Amino acid sequence: MVMHPRQVKADGYTLIEILVVLFIISIVTSIALLSIGRNQNKHLESFANDLSQMLTLAEEQAMLQPAVLGLSLRDNQLAFYSYQPAVGDKKSSWLPVDEKSLAKRSIPDDIEVSVDTGAESSSDQAVSSTPQIFISTNGDLTPFKIYVGKKGEKPRYMIKGDADGNITNKVLS
């Protein structure tokens, strides 16, 4: 019995079927890669927004208490401190803020944070517990720029504080 060419049974996939499957796999892969990239950017954006809101809260706290507050960003940690002036024999000091919303926090390992206050940093100040940013009882603060980015890459966000207490969060290109 001789089979007609149209009646021959195919035992494999056609080139078109293989190309369609590869096309679908490439679409799914690119969507997954885009969502991973967005999640990393959202993580950075969330951290920058949280830090900006904590600074605004610290400004309000400084005016309400009234107390001079400070922010220290060192050793992969951020911490707010309250200034305790010298009284009698007791020296002036910076004590950690008790309030939960301004408590000491670790900076995630994949995030790099740097502070620019325009002042020259000395090695002594980097080791001391003196905050880099000061917030006065009237809401004024040390002018600063805090850069937030992924470790090893250029910063993605900048939090800027003006002397009059205005704090802005900006995406860098």
Q: Can you characterise this structure?
A:
The protein is of the alpha+beta class and 173 residues long. It has a single domain, classed as minor pseudopilin epsh domain (minor pseudopilin epsh fold). The protein is built from two helices and nine strands, in the order αβββββαββββ. The chain has helices at 15-64, 123-127, and strands at residues 69-74, 77-84, 93-96, 105-106, 111-116, 133-135, 144-150, 157-161, 167-171. Strands 1, 2, 3, 4 and 6 form a five-stranded antiparallel β-sheet that branches. The termini are far apart.
> CATH first level: which class?
Alpha Beta
Helix content: 25-40%
Distance between the termini: 73 Å
Class by alpha and beta content: alpha+beta
Q: What is the fourth-level CATH superfamily?
A: minor pseudopilin epsh domain
According to DSSP, the number of beta strands is 9
- Low-confidence parts, pLDDT < 50 over ≥5 residues? 122-127
Envelope shape? rod-shaped
Element-level helix/strand string: HEEEEEHEEEE
Indicate the CATH architecture. Answer: 3-Layer(bab) Sandwich
Radius of gyration: 28 Å
Number of domains: 1
CATH topology grouping: minor pseudopilin epsh fold
Give the averaged pLDDT, no decimals.
86
Main pleated sheet: 5 strands, antiparallel
Residues in β-strands, percent: 25-35%
How do the helices and strands line up, and which of them pair or pack?
Elements: H1 15-64, E1 69-74, E2 77-84, E3 93-96, E4 105-106, E5 111-116, H2 123-127, E6 133-135, E7 144-150, E8 157-161, E9 167-171
Antiparallel strand pairs: 1-2, 1-6, 2-3, 2-4, 5-7, 7-8, 8-9
